[in-house]
User: What shape does this take?
Amino acid sequence: MPAVEATTATTRKTALNAVHRQMGARMVEFNGWDMPVEYPSSGGIIAEHMAVRTGVGIFDVSHMGDIRLAGPGALAAVQHISMNDASRLAVGQAQYSALLYPQGTFVDDVIVHRLGEHEYLLVINAGTREKDFSWVSDNTRDFNRKVENLSDEFTQIAIQGPKGLNLLQKLTDADLSALKFYWVTRGKVCGLKSVLIARTGYTGEDGFEIYIPADEATSAGVWNEILEAGKEFGVLPCGLGARNTLRLEAKLPLYGHEISDTINVWEAGLDRFCKMEKPDFIGRVALEKAKATGLQRTLVGLEMIERGIARDGYKVLDDSGREIGYVTSGSPAPFLKKNIALAYVPPRFSDAGSTVKVEVRGQGVKAQVVPTPFYKRPKRTESPRT
Amino acid sequence: MPYPSDFKYTKEHEWIKADGKNATIGITNYAQESLGDIVFAELPKVGSETTAGKTFGTIESVKAVSDLYAPASGTVTEVNSELATAPEKINKDAHSAWLIKITMKDPNELNSLLSAADYEKFVAEEAGH
Assistant: This one.
């Protein structure tokens, strides 16, 4: 058993840090942040994961960063630095996208929200906050826009699961059932005026993310009010452990794992979020070339057939034991009750039903390529999707 | 949860309970708490050898993989087969859900391990970081 990781003095804290510690959360260092990995009082990762799949769970995701682009040239700036087509967004709509290097690889993945006629909010990853902000400001200089780093302005709380709507509706005057998936609105939340409410998340469930002022008292007040209001739905506070297993079941990419500065859009299988027909954007030329060359590797879903758990970084082998790829994320899947993984392999091994091996402590353990996402939430009439 | 005073403990968070040359080995309550939901235990076969301070298996939770270190040298006489289908028993009661039983080569090896009181002090310091 290794020693528990100690957190360093330079580790950053969200405004809810003291609340997590009071609740007895197990804290870990994640991308430079001191974050809860699980709450023993919730029953741990599996219980938290199940709460989100069957009821509701809440997450402190304030470590995520936020970049605001506004001005007459904001749309053109967003179009230039992101791969999805932001011109398709109505005011109040959001889209999954990514910032790319000229090589067609990832600076980061982002959610682009159109907040106003000429106003966009990019929500970015914790570990890439500074890099992303420099990238966005440096590469949009030629556009008539103002760019602001709002990362420290917000406490971001995710309310996720089929009961998320019922829970949040108790605390807001915004009509949440009228808010479609990947749309944003503003409303009063826990007495705070004009809070940004997005119907987004990173769990594969329906859910919401709210952006409130980042002072400790306000943040703690809202967090506790949500937990109190959610008692009737069995709400649990959830940590990064469950966030990771939930996103893995839903095959949502994690920066540094499925996507990175050495992996391109086609390899990651994010084609449908990359609009080659829109005006020029950074990365486009390289992606055209890459498409013509063909894929050398592709992201697949694996399900372990034999006993063993694939973990991040483990080697993938063919039947003869030759190394053919590697696992980007692997874990037991608490809802599916299987051991699953995402891995990069050559395209000829990517057909569903192909068998490969994952090297677990020197042993090749059999796994099968399966269709992804591993988990897709059941369609519910009360949560319309576009 | 109290740490039984008739157990000895390693700094890697295993416990060992000796009865003459025979001993039972498990992981401590602190270990199961740190790991979280335990989903898999890879244990040695009956008849294999353990060496004090060396790994004898692996334990996995949803989020982590950890090596198991043998508190004493010896020969494995029994493996807790219940853990193959119900590894969560370790979370429920780490001090009764044992992993393996061994016949020790030299029971004197246990003298270098921690007493319950020393182990409690050790984990209090480790948790206090």
Q: What stands out?
A: The interface with chain A takes residues 12-14, 27, 31, 33-37, 39-40, 42, 58-63, 65-69, 91, 126-127, 129 of chain B (CB under 8 Å). The mean pLDDT of chain B is 96. DSSP finds four helices and nine strands in chain B. Residues 116-127 of chain B form the longest helix (12 residues).
